[in-house]
């Protein structure tokens, strides 16, 4: 099947369309009906994954198309494999927060995360290790969908009533709340690193932490990591700690944007970082200069990411960089 550059762009989430810079003459189609299915197509040097619908034109499926629900309510097309038990699903709800991979909630019971590209997934491997080692802060992994050993989608139990840290943690900042949740988050981080047996999360920030309004129970999601990370960074636990601490600055930026007092928020950021790191390192000495230098480096990347993919987010890393400079983070 030949796909023009424009058709390829229509098959990706809108915020990722610019990743397409060429047409595609190589694709594998897994139809689930005459007008819908899953397509893996090559453009550039990547194999992109697209649940699709096809009438006069082919495009990425929307929630109203219920393509993911159809796929998981029937035996998978030939060529795909999974350990997931098929069910019966009808309602889809997309998660609107920006992320590289697109997440779809089915019947408010399971969450399906479509990969942007088909590749062997370290993230899926990490979730399997965590499950085997009894890590209690992971939404139950129900199964993965593979094509030729490459991950196309993962399926986890959906925990109703949860929000990610761009909601609940911003509320904590606005309320100047430095309570038990920070200790819980540090303990979760330490237990996660222990269970991962030398691996790390790789893209660890408050947006990857789910919480209900009824308790301080926390869950961690999205272990795909940062594709821009060096091989050394990908195994260094300090990177996860730095990334989480840097996200407290982003939380502060959001809170200030929506009317919080900047001086109160700035103090909250410093105190949140202090409690989190002291708990994670169990009160032992650690290289705080290395931590702050890494945080500053991560912010430079965050700003570049915002410039390329999410310009409306630029204010957050700009605030973080400015405040980190004020605190002399990263200076020799």
Compute the number of strand runs: 13
Put simply, the count of helices is 9
The CATH topology of the largest domain comes to Aminoglycoside 3'-phosphotransferase, Chain: A, domain 2
Number of domains: 2
* Order of SSEs: HEEEEHEEEEHEEEHHEEHHHH
Distance from N terminus to C terminus (CA atoms, Å) equals 56 Å
Main pleated sheet: 6 strands, antiparallel
Q: Can you offer a commentary on this structure?
A:
The chain is of the alpha+beta class and 332 residues long. It has 9 helices and 13 strands. Helix 5 packs across helix 7, helix 6 packs antiparallel against helix 7 and helix 6 crosses helix 8.
Question: What can be said about this structure in brief?
Answer:
With 332 residues, the chain is α+β, with helices and mostly antiparallel strands. It has 9 helices and 13 strands. InterPro entries: Kinase-like_dom_sf.
Write the layout of secondary structure elements.
Elements: H1 5-10, E1 27-31, E2 36-43, E3 46-54, E4 58-60, H2 67-72, E5 80-82, E6 92-94, E7 102-106, E8 110-119, H3 122-132, E9 141-147, E10 150-157, E11 162-164, H4 165-174, H5 180-195, E12 209-212, E13 218-220, H6 237-257, H7 262-280, H8 288-309, H9 315-326
Task: Output the keywords.
Kinase-like_dom_sf, globular, alpha+beta, 37% helix, Aminoglycoside 3'-phosphotransferase, Chain: A, domain 2, single chain, six-stranded antiparallel sheet
């Amino acid at each position: 099947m030949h796909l023009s550059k424009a058709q390829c762009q229509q098959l990706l989430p809108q915020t990722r369309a610019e990743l397409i810079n060429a047409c595609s003459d190589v694709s594998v189609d897994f139809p689930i009906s005459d007008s819908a299915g899953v397509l893996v197509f090559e453009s550039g040097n990547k194999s992109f994954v697209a649940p699709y619908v096809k009438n006069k034109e082919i495009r990425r499926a929307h929630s109203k198309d219920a393509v993911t629900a159809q796929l998981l309510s029937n035996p998978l097309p030939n060529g795909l494999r999974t350990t997931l038990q098929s069910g019966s699903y009808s309602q889809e709800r997309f998660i609107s927060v920006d992320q590289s991979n697109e997440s779809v909630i089915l019947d408010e019971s399971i969450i399906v995360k479509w990969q942007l590209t088909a590749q062997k997934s370290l993230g899926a491997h990490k979730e399997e290790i965590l499950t085997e080692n009894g890590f209690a802060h992971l939404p139950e992994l129900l199964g993965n969908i593979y094509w030729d050993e490459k991950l196309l989608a993962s399926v986890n139990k959906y925990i109703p009533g949860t929000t990610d840290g761009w909601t609940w943690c911003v509320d904590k900042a606005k309320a100047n709340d430095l309570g038990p949740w920070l200790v819980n988050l540090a303990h979760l981080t330490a237990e996660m690193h222990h269970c991962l047996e030398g691996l790390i999360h790789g893209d660890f920030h408050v947006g990857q932490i789910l919480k209900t309004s009824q308790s301080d129970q926390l869950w961690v999601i999205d272990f795909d990591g940062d594709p821009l990370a060096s091989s050394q960074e990908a195994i260094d636990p300090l990177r996860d700690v730095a990334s989480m601490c840097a996200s407290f600055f982003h939380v502060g930026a959001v809170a200030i944007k929506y009317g919080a007092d900047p001086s109160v928020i700035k103090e909250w950021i410093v105190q949140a970082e202090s409690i989190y790191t002291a708990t994670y390192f169990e009160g032992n000495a650690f290289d705080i200069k290395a931590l702050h230098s890494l945080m500053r480096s991560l912010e430079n990347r965050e700003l570049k990411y915002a410039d390329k993919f999410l310009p409306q987010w630029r204010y957050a890393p700009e605030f973080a960089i400015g405040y980190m400079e004020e605190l002399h983070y990263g200076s020799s």
